[in-house]
Amino acid sequence: MTMNSAEATPAGAPSSCGAPSAAVALFRSLGDPTRLGILLRLAEGEARVVDLVKTVGLAQSTVSAHLSCLRDCGLVDSRAEGRSSRYFLSRPELLDLLASAEHLLAATGEAVDLCPNYGRTAAGNDSEGIA
Questions:
Q1: Model confidence pLDDT, tens digit, residues 79-129
Q2: Residue 81, SS3 per DSSP
Q3: Cβ neighbour number for residue 83 with a 10 Å cutoff
Q4: Is the CA virtual torsion 40, 45, 48, 53 positive or negative?
Q5: d(CA 114, CA 92)
Q6: C-alpha–C-alpha distance, residues 19 and 2, integer Å
Q7: Which member of 30, 40, 41, 120 has the lowest number of beta carbons within 10 Å of its beta carbon?
Q8: Taking 90 as the threshold, does the pLDDT of residue 77 lie above it?
Q9: Which residues, in sequence order, are CB contacts of 26 under 8 Å at separation 6+?
Q10: Residue 12: what are its φ and ψ, rounded to 5°?
Q11: Which of 101, 80, 79 is nearest to 90 (CA)?
């Protein structure tokens, strides 16, 4: 039986490779294109699910599932507004992290995009266990 690394190590404990498991979970949550797109949109300001559906171009149920994940991670929160909810970034530090990522990507140029494991040439590698 294999265990998910989040289940195998307590929060904050190092993963099998020595990285803090919470940091691994954070970067995995940011590594999904849909969740990153949602976060980038929320960095511009609050949004309803219908707004986020238009932004990412996926079904409402899929966007809601990603929002649930991001809320469980403590990255987004919501407030009721009539019959809908408005989502927003719950941690302002996330804006700093996203800005730092933009600066890092500007400095590394195409190297990250061309990475054989995670770059655009690796699209479809999920089936090979690289995620």
A1: 999 999 999 999 989 999 999 999 998 898 788 888 888 777 665 544 333
A2: strand
A3: 5
A4: negative
A5: 30
A6: 19
A7: 120
A8: yes
A9: 73
A10: 85, -15
A11: 79
Specify whether the CB–CB gap between 54 and 38 falls below 8 A.
Answer: no
d(CA 35, CA 66): 6
Cβ atoms of residues 20 and 13 within 8 Å: yes
Which residues, listed in sequence order, are joined to residue 78 by a DSSP beta bridge? 87
49: tokens are 């699910």
Q: Other CB atoms closer than 10 Å to residue 77's CB: what's the count?
A: 14
Bridging pattern class, strands 84-89 and 76-81: antiparallel
The rounded Cα 35 to chain-centroid distance in angstroms is 4
Residue with token string 């219908």: 50
